[in-house]
Write a structure and sequence with these properties.
mainly alpha, Leucine-rich Repeat Variant, two-stranded antiparallel sheet, 40 helices, 6 strands, 59% helix
Length: 859
């Protein structure tokens, strides 16, 4: 009841339920009276309430109601309990008044309590001296507080000396450089030496406060003094290890004849001493980051590296646990020199103690970030000799020791921290080394939080996997092993996996991969799975966008209807009802509206989708690069083989052979060329001259070699031709519009033929009759000659072009010369049809052939 009253009185003042004057007249008087209660627990509770109330009361009320009561409690005639309460009250109100008030009314009582006969009172008042010093100021502190503090640090009681050391550390920020150099530094050195010599309870406290102490006086130390503190810290880290004092002090029982009994050695003192020494090393390990900051990263290797290694290999697990908990801070302070403690980190990761592993595993992401930013910002696959090549395998190996224990929280922490490997591990290593561990723990871990943590890390790392086949294999494995699992608890985990996918991946990905499989669980025979499914149904509706996801919305509605109609379990029915109420509140956006109004969630979803597309694009680029590299290798091999064959066979002639598609055989000398790897008979009559040019047929897309009779260049002749194809400029090449029938075109291989040194007929190549093309100028125009399309001609063309069989009269060889075209009405083609377009022929009576007439009528 007293404890409840203390809380109620404080809340009344905090909430301003009563005016300050009324509160000071009623509630405050009750608090002051209750502080003197005979029950120490009740008195302590009311004293704590009074100290909290002092922070909320104005200065005038404190001076009027509390100051006088506190001074009266500090008299020597009062009990020890009252004097202890006076010490705490004076320390609290010292910051509320001006320095002259403190010096006049509070300081005499403070000095009296520092000289109190009871060591508890002296120690309690010593801990409040820093508050009094802040209220007094520097000059009054130097003259009134420091003498008392020096005397208290030399007190005969260990409890008072500890309080004095703590106060010295707390008032360092208030003192000037002269005071620190002349008073504080010699005092601290004396305290440290006495603690090491005595090996009493002050030694662990010295080890605890040494980091703050060195950091506070670092600017006022000389190089010799700085080195002295570093050496002293090394001694604290090795206390109890150099000499096994505990074993040397253990003696055999001594028989006391006078008393007639046995007197054993004081083993309790030995064990207490061992505990103090272990605690000293533990506190020194706790202060190691502060000492690294004190000496600097450059001096770490010569001064503290060996000491750090000893702390990491300390025989007591508490020391190793403490140093492992601060390992990430040491890495941050070392910066680029963090690789010096790489072996120590590996040793801690291989430690058998679960407590030691906990300190390193919990801070592993920060440690890896330090190594990544310390100049070794490369993955393990890129540099096998880097620091991460030893750290990451040891980190993965610590999984065996962690999962042998029953500490599921540590297991969950390890599974969560495995996701940090996406920054420093390559895609192949993640897929081959990390993901198998996560999948195994996802299946076999006992605690559900461990499974969820493993699923989260697995899905995070899968985004790092570059190959689409590997990602699809992981997702299909999740669906097969969990959604379609025989064990119900695995199917239940699938719902949690889908929640994580919705959080980490884009909406489009989830709808394409997991949406339909998740809805299948509404027919599951286990009620708990259906109940868990009901909790995720609103999230599924938030993913939909109309009208593209109309089918998915229909599936969701059908699932909810079936659960409403067919569900018999009461808990699942309640879950469906609550899910249905939430579903009704969700509005599905339209696709046109989402493009205009984008919220933060939509922007995040777009970023996720872009990242997923980027993975696919990078994979396609890499595949193209691999294909190009493979083709280059094949091409290099072929060139090497052809070069070798050429050096063997063509050693007698150094003239290169004609290229494919180039003009060949146009010179007067007899030569043999290759067209489509088939021999072409040489031209016996050297009709071609050096002025012969190549005419490119645009409609057939091949080169036609048509030499002029008069030796003129066709490419330079202005020819009126049909309108060119849109988007293609004719340039300087001759445009030839060939209207060749299906029978005349035959096989597509005709476009690949090349003719060397053709023998042209005596027919005129151009016809200048203006009646054929009315409306055109009388300049020469290219008029193709329509060949007769008889059955015999078709057979000849097919035999000549399609199958490569020589035409009748060719004597079994394919001739390259242009065949003779008959000018009669029923003309026929003999020989091979040339690749170039030949002029059309007129009938015997000078009129157009019937085929041309029919063609005009059809137009």
């Amino acid at each position: 009841m007293q404890l409840a009253a203390t809380s109620a009185f404080l809340q009344i003042l905090q909430k301003n339920l009563v005016p300050i004057q009324n509160y000071s007249q009623t509630f405050l008087q009750t608090i002051l009276n209750s502080v003197d209660s005979k029950d120490p627990d009740v008195a302590s509770a009311w004293l704590d309430t009074l100290l909290d109330v002092i922070d909320l009361l104005p200065k005038e009320v404190i001076k009027k109601e509390i100051l006088g009561s506190a001074i009266s409690k500090g008299q020597l005639a009062q009990s020890v309990q009252s004097r202890l309460a006076c010490c705490r009250i004076l320390g609290k109100i010292s910051t509320k008044f001006e320095p002259f008030v403190i010096k006049k009314e509070i300081l005499p009582v403070v000095q009296s309590l520092c000289q109190d006969v009871d060591y508890e009172v002296r120690g309690c008042m010593c801990r409040q001296l820093d508050c009094v010093a802040r209220g007094l100021g520097l000059e009054a502190t130097k003259s009134a507080i420091l003498p008392e503090l020096v005397e208290l640090t030399n007190d005969e009681e260990c409890h008072v000396r500890i309080a004095g050391l703590e106060t010295v550390v707390n008032i360092l920020s208030l003192l000037d450089a002269e005071t620190c150099g002349t008073t504080i530094i010699p005092l601290v050195c004396k305290i440290c030496q006495q603690a090491v010599q005595a090996e009493d309870a002050t030694l662990p406290v010295v080890a605890t406060q040494l980091g703050k102490l060195c950091h506070g006086i670092a600017d006022n130390l000389t190089d010799e003094q700085k080195q002295w503190f570093i050496d002293f810290y090394k001694k604290l880290c090795h206390v109890g290890l150099e000499k096994n004092k505990a074993s040397s002090r253990v003696t055999t029982p001594v028989i006391d004849k006078d008393r007639g009994g046995s007197k054993e050695s004081d083993l309790t003192d030995i064990f207490e001493l061992e505990d103090k020494l272990v605690e000293c090393r533990k506190n020194s390990a706790f202060n190691f980051p502060a000492m690294v900051l004190f000496c600097g990263a450059k001096q770490f290797k010569p001064d503290l590296h060996v000491t750090f290694t000893h702390l990491c290999k300390d025989p007591h697990f508490m020391v190793r646990k403490t140093i492992s908990g601060g390992f990430h801070e040491v890495c941050k302070l070392l910066g680029n020199s963090a690789n010096l403690i790489q072996s120590d980190l590996v040793a801690l990761l291989k430690d058998e103690s679960i407590e030691v592993l906990k300190g390193v595993v919990s801070n592993m992401p920060a440690i890896l970030d330090c190594y990544m930013s310390s100049g070794s910002n490369h993955t393990v696959s890129e540099s096998k000799s880097g620091p991460l090549s030893d750290i990451i395998p040891a980190f993965l190996a610590s999984e065996n020791a962690v999962f042998t224990s029953n500490n599921w929280r540590l297991q969950e922490m390890l599974m969560n921290n495995l996701s940090c490997l996406n920054k420093c591990y390559s895609s192949e290593n993640i897929y081959n080394k990390v993901i198998p561990i996560l999948r195994q723990k996802l299946l076999k871990a006992r605690a559900l939080p461990v499974k969820v943590a493993a699923a989260r890390s697995l899905l995070k790392l899968t985004r790092k996997v570059k190959k689409r086949e590997q990602r699809d294999e992981i997702f299909h494995g999740l669906i097969h092993e969990f959604c379609h699992a025989r064990k119900c608890y695995l199917r239940n985990v699938f719902v949690d996996i889908c929640r994580i996918v919705i959080e980490l991946y884009s909406k489009k990905f989830f709808k394409e991969t997991f949406y339909e499989y998740l809805l299948e669980l509404h027919t599951d025979s286990v009620p708990n799975i259906r109940l868990n499914l009901c909790s995720i149904l609103p999230d599924l509706k938030r993913l939909l966008i109309l009208p593209t996801d109309r089918g998915l919305l229909q599936q969701l509605d059908a699932c909810v209807r079936k659960l409403l109609v067919a569900e018999k379990d009461k808990d699942v029915t309640d879950g469906v009802q609550s899910a249905l109420e939430e579903l009704d509140k969700i509005h599905i956006p339209m696709q046109s509206m989402t493009r205009r109004n984008l919220f933060e969630q939509d922007l995040e979803d777009q970023k996720k989708e872009e990242e997923e597309k980027l993975l696919l694009d990078n994979e396609e680029k890499e595949m193209k690069k691999e294909e190009e590299a493979a083709e280059k290798k094949k091409g290099d091999k072929r060139n090497l083989v052809s070069a070798k064959k050429g050096s063997e066979n063509g050693s007698s002639s150094k003239i290169p052979g004609p290229r494919k598609g180039s003009r060949a055989g146009l010179s007067g000398s007899n030569s043999t060329t290759k067209n489509d790897n088939k021999p072409i008979s040489p031209n016996t009559k050297g009709a071609g001259t050096s002025n012969n040019k190549l005419v490119k047929s645009k409609s057939i897309n091949c080169l036609s070699q048509i030499p002029r009779r008069d030796g003129k260049d066709l490419s330079k002749t202005k020819i009126v031709s049909p309108a060119p194809t849109p988007g293609k400029s004719p340039g300087n090449k001759v445009q030839v519009n060939s209207n060749i029938s299906k029978a005349s075109t035959g096989d597509s291989n005709i476009n690949k033929k090349r003719v060397s040194s053709p023998k042209l007929s005596r027919l005129p190549l151009y016809n200048s009759n203006p009646n054929l093309h009315p409306g055109r100028p009388s300049s020469p125009s290219l008029i193709p000659i329509k060949a007769s399309t008889t059955s015999s001609t078709n057979k000849t063309i097919k035999a000549t072009r399609g199958s490569g069989i020589p035409a009748p009269g060719s004597a079994g060889t394919r001739r390259a010369s242009v065949p003779t075209i008959s000018t009669s009405r029923r003309g026929s083609l003999s020989g091979q049809l040339p690749t170039e377009v030949t002029p059309k022929a007129k009938g015997s009576n000078g009129a157009l052939t019937p085929s041309i007439k029919e063609r005009k009528k059809s137009r």
